[in-house]
Amino acid sequence: MEESQMRSGTYNPTIESAAQQAHQGVDRAADKAMSGVGRMSDSAHRAVNSTADKAASAADWASQVPEKARRAQGAMTEAACNSIRARPLSTVFGALAAGYILGRIARW
């Protein structure tokens, strides 16, 4: 409190006490708000990190799919080639029969 206020008689202990209580209340509210903001910020960071981890995992899985498909296609092609080499006439007659049946179905 300033000395001039005390000499002029404008000092009121009730007002001073209320002002101090108001300051303390505002300080407590600010502290609570800051801790709440900190908790919310931490929660948001954890959510973002979790989402980023899941997205990275999904991207890794998706990047492996084309390679697995190429390997499966290669294995099927190799199996078909081996089958044709083992029985060429059966394969040709089987293809002709399948073509004939599909042609008949298409005209129907």
Description:
With 108 residues, the chain is an all-alpha fold. It has one domain (3-107). Helices cover 93% and strands 0% of the residues. The chain has three helices and no strands. The protein has helices spanning 3-8, 13-86, 88-107. Helix 2 packs across helix 3.
What would you say about this model in short?
This protein has 108 residues and is mainly α. The protein has helices at residues 3-8, 13-86, 88-107. The mean pLDDT is 84.
Count of individual helical segments: 3
Note the gap between the termini.
105 Å
Number of strands: 0
What percentage of residues falls in helices of 4 or more residues?
over 70%
Number of domains: 1
What general form does the structure show?
A: rod-shaped
Q: What value does the average pLDDT take?
A: 84
- Return the structural class: mainly alpha
| Cα radius of gyration in angstroms | 41 Å
Task: Write down the secondary-structure element order.
Answer: HHH
**Biggest β-sheet, characterized?**
none
Secondary structure: elements and pairs:
Layout: H1 3-8, H2 13-86, H3 88-107
Helix pairs in contact: 2-3
